[in-house]
Write a structure and sequence with these properties.
By secondary structure, the protein is α+β, with helices and mostly antiparallel strands. It has 13 helices and 12 strands. Helix content is 56%, strand content 18%. It has a 5-stranded antiparallel β-sheet with strand order 2-1-5-4-3, with helices on both faces. Strand 4 and strand 5 form a beta hairpin.
Length: 450
C-alpha cells in the first residue's frame, strides 16, 4: 500500500500535537526528579547509572549529577557488601514488584554510610529488561540510633544479668553464712557438751579402776573366810543362799567390766566429738585426716547400725597410711559429715524400693578409702552401692540450693559448701562419679600442704 505525502504530513502533525501535550508532564516529572529530597536513579543491567538526580549525588558525596555519572561507572563497587547488592539486583530483575534493600555504601571521600534503596525493573513491550529505577534514602542517623539503642539494650541486659548474678551470689552467701553460723554454733555446743561430759566420765573411769580392785580384795577376803570358816552361822548361811553368792561373785566382776567398757565408750564418743568440732583448730594446721573420718563415723553410728526393719549400713574402711595433712580440720570434718550423711540418705531411699532378698544379696555398704596420689596430694574416696544418679542430676549437685530431697529434708547447700571448702579453702578437687544402678562415689583430692 502506497503512503501519500498527505498521510505523512498528517502523522507528523499528530506526533507534534502529542509531543506538545506531553511536554508539561515531562517538565513536571523533570522538576520532581531534579528537586526530589530522595535520591532517584535509573541504572542499566550492567551496573551503570543512566540518570541520577542531585539528591543522589549529594548522598554519595559528589558535586553534581553529571559528576556522579562521570566518575561512578561501576555501581556494585560502591557497596561494602557488593555480593549482597548483586543478589538484590537479581531479585529485582526476577520480580515485577518493587523490592527494598538496606546496605552500607562508600561515598566519594571513602567514608561509609547506610542507605535504603527501593527499586523495580522496567521492561519494553516484549518483556526485555531496559533498566532498573528506584529511590535511595540516607538512613545513617537511624542506623546509628539503632546501633546505640542496641548497645544500650545489651548494656542493660548485661547489667541485669550482673545484678541477677549478684543477687544469687548474695543469696548464696547469706545461706552459707547461716550455715556456717549454724555449724559454728553446733561446734561450740558439741565442744561444750564434750567438755562437760569429759570431767565426770574421767572421774567415773578413774574410780572404776579402784572399785574393781576393791571388789577383788573383798571377794578374795570372802574366799578366805569361806576357807577358814567352812561352817558359818545359820543366819550367815541363809544370807549366802539368798544372795546366791557364787553367782554374785562371777556376775559382779562382769558388771564392773561392763561398766568399764561403757565408760571407755563414752570417753571415745567425747574424744570424737572434740575431734569433730576442732574448736581449738580454727587455723590451718597439720591434722590426721583418718581420725576426722572415724570421729564423723562415730557420730553417725546411730544411723548406720541396724534398727528394727532397717538393716543398717556396712562401713568398709580401706586406709593407707597417710602423713599429716595441712588443712582446716573442722571444715573438712563438715565435708565428711555432708558426704557420709548424703550416702546414708541415698541408701535408705534405695532400700525402700528394694526387696528383702535384694537387701540380703547386696547389703547397703559405704566404702571409705584414703590413699596417697603422689608426693604432694592425697585422696579420700567415699562410695556407696545405692541407686546412683542420672547425668542431668549429677551435673547440678554442686549448685547452690539444688536438691533431690523432699521439702524439709534438704537445703541444697551441703554439697555446694563442701565443694567450696575443698576447692576454694584448700585448693583441691571434689569430683563425683555416678550412674543409674551403679552407685555414687565422691573423690576428695587435697594437697598435703594447702
Amino acid at each position: 500500500m502506497k503512503i501519500t505525502n498527505l498521510e505523512i504530513g498528517n502523522k507528523f502533525l499528530e506526533f507534534q500535537r502529542v509531543e506538545i501535550a506531553l511536554q508539561p508532564a515531562e517538565e513536571k516529572y523533570r522538576s520532581m526528579f531534579e528537586n526530589a529530597v530522595e535520591g532517584m536513579f535509573q541504572r542499566t543491567p550492567d551496573g551503570r547509572y543512566l540518570l541520577a538526580n542531585p539528591a543522589l549525588a549529594k548522598i554519595y558525596g559528589y558535586e553534581s549529577s553529571a559528576h556522579l555519572l562521570m566518575y561512578l561507572t561501576n555501581i556494585d563497587r560502591q557497596f561494602v557488601d557488593s555480593q549482597r547488592h548483586q543478589q538484590f539486583i537479581e531479585l529485582i530483575e526476577q520480580n515485577e514488584q518493587v523490592c527494598g534493600f538496606e546496605s552500607q555504601v562508600y561515598r566519594q571521600d571513602g567514608s561509609v554510610i547506610w542507605i535504603s534503596e527501593s527499586a523495580r525493573a522496567v521492561r519494553d513491550q516484549n518483556g526485555v529488561l531496559i533498566y532498573c529505577e528506584g529511590f535511595v534514602t540516607k538512613i545513617q542517623e537511624r542506623k546509628l540510633a539503632e546501633e546505640k539503642w542496641l548497645q544500650l539494650e545489651k548494656k542493660f541486659q548485661r547489667q541485669s544479668e550482673e545484678l541477677q548474678a549478684s543477687r544469687e551470689k548474695l543469696h548464696k552467701i547469706e545461706f552459707q553464712l547461716i550455715h556456717s553460723e549454724k555449724m559454728s554454733s553446733i561446734g561450740q555446743m558439741v565442744a561444750g557438751v564434750a567438755h562437760e561430759i569429759n570431767n565426770p566420765v574421767t572421774f567415773v573411769c578413774g574410780n572404776l579402776l579402784h572399785a574393781g580392785q576393791y571388789a577383788e580384795d573383798l571377794l578374795n577376803l570372802l574366799k578366805l573366810y569361806q576357807q577358814h570358816y567352812p561352817q558359818p552361822a545359820p543366819e550367815i548361811e541363809e544370807e549366802i543362799e539368798a544372795l546366791d553368792l557364787d553367782f554374785l561373785r562371777v556376775d559382779f566382776r562382769k558388771t564392773l567390766s561392763s561398766m568399764q567398757m561403757g565408760a571407755d565408750r563414752i570417753r571415745q564418743i567425747v574424744h570424737s566429738l572434740r575431734n569433730f568440732s576442732r574448736m581449738d583448730e580454727a587455723q590451718m594446721k597439720p591434722a590426721n585426716i583418718q581420725e576426722g573420718i572415724d570421729s564423723t563415723l562415730l557420730i553417725l553410728n546411730n544411723r548406720t547400725k541396724p534398727k528394727g526393719q532397717n538393716p543398717g549400713v556396712n562401713i568398709i574402711k580401706k586406709y593407707e597410711e597417710l602423713p599429716l595433712v595441712r588443712c582446716y580440720a573442722e571444715l573438712l570434718n563438715q565435708v565428711f559429715m555432708n558426704l557420709l550423711s548424703n550416702a546414708i540418705d541415698a541408701l535408705e531411699e534405695y532400700n525402700e524400693i528394694r526387696l528383702e532378698n535384694q537387701l540380703q544379696l547386696n547389703p547397703s555398704t559405704i566404702t571409705i578409702s584414703t590413699e596417697i596420689i603422689n608426693s604432694e596430694w592425697v585422696a579420700i574416696k567415699i562410695a556407696d552401692n545405692g541407686a546412683g544418679m542420672p547425668k542431668q542430676v549429677k551435673e547440678q549437685i554442686f549448685n547452690s540450693f539444688f536438691t533431690t530431697k523432699p521439702i524439709g529434708k534438704g537445703t541444697g547447700l551441703g554439697l555446694s559448701i563442701s565443694h567450696q571448702i575443698v576447692v576454694e579453702k584448700h585448693g583441691g578437687n571434689l569430683k563425683c562419679i555416678s550412674a543409674p544402678d551403679q552407685g555414687t562415689e565422691f573423690i576428695i583430692e587435697i594437697p598435703l600442704n594447702a
